[in-house]
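Table S2 (text version). Query chain:
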Amino acid sequence: MNTPIADFVRAYAASGCARLHMPGHKGRPFLGCEALDVTEITGADELYGAAGIIAQSEKNAGALFGSGRTFYAAEGSSQCVRAMLALAVWSAPPGRRPVVLAARNAHKSLLYAAALLDFDVAWLWPESPGQSLCACPVSPAALERALEETRPAAVYVTSPDYLGGACDVAALAAVSHRRGVPLLVDNAHGAYLRFLSPSRHPMDLGADLCCDSAHKTLPVLTGGAYLHVGQGAPAFFGENGRRALALFGSTSPSYLILQSLDLCNQYLAGDYPRRLAETAGALAALRERLRGRGWAVRDTEPLKLTIDCAASGWEGGDLAAQLRSGGVECEYWDRDDLVCMWTPENPPTDFERLLDCLGENDRPSRPRPPLPQARGEAVCSIREAMFRPWETVPAAQALGRVCGAPTVACPPAVPIAVAGERIGPEAAALFARYGVDRVEVLA
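Corresponding structure-token output:
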């Protein structure tokens, strides 16, 4: 598969041309990558008006992912989430305030989109008490009931979630489409799912719009992402995807990121599926070895290893520190869970190093109380709350105040309290459980 962006930039870097244009380093090495760092010079195309090499490269990506249309983003899935929601709101029937029906484990970029686009959110909650902020399984029956109560501009789910749990996207798509509602999937952690056999990617399961953080699971520089439009999605989405991305993106996108997205096409078109299958198989074997050593390991999507720290008798922070002391850095931990992420670029020694760090575990499990559901009373819209004056107070003093902005670390960036909602005792308990000590509230 050709790589038009990378080829152009390499040829330009080798040309010796006098760079009387941005950026200011002029191709001279400071970090070492400057020769390949260019801007929208003649021939380089323009990300938000692509008609040349970027458009060619995006077409290659669309063919690989089997989408109706694929667009590049250089500012992560957060940019693509906002663009998906803009497309849904713009295409919603006129005459009523737009509402998005979203699973409650949504990344906080959804709330920022609500503030910028001025829509409301109706939440889909777990049907049984949850164990983590990151997880919110949504059943087709629960979605059906929710769609009987509200007429949203879109249904929005996160799959896979940060712990590696996945929704039944095909079933949710069928329910949404029977109601004439598009399904949007935050697939930030699952770009690789297309290349499993069979594919588990949302584009192959009926999603209308989907964002992938290419950099999370593929060999792409941080910030590289895809916005995919489904084959059966409304034509409006494909026709206006680039406009939606431009609304939230810089006019100076990183050409280093764009080159890495371009080169990734060639990588995916090669023997990546075979290498992915080998890695997934090795990780499945690793999970079983750890279970045999006394560790509680969750069933997850193929490239995550998630240890249930509570069931293993550990505090997540202590386990992360033990790994770090052995030269292993995990992706995420909280009190109850620890997540490691793999790709085919991890050498076999990484598997053995993790095993050596963890060793045998003979600790008894510790209690893990279910999470309370922080269903705050809506006092004002998300937009109004996030644009009004606020103050930061100790979390212990936030009870009864109105949340001014999402307050949670990234990762996982799943808000405990939603802007515009009154903070109740359930949210206060979650602040304590997740170590949140300062909260922004309306002044």
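Notes on Table S2: The chain has 15 helices and 14 strands. The longest helix spans residues 272-292.
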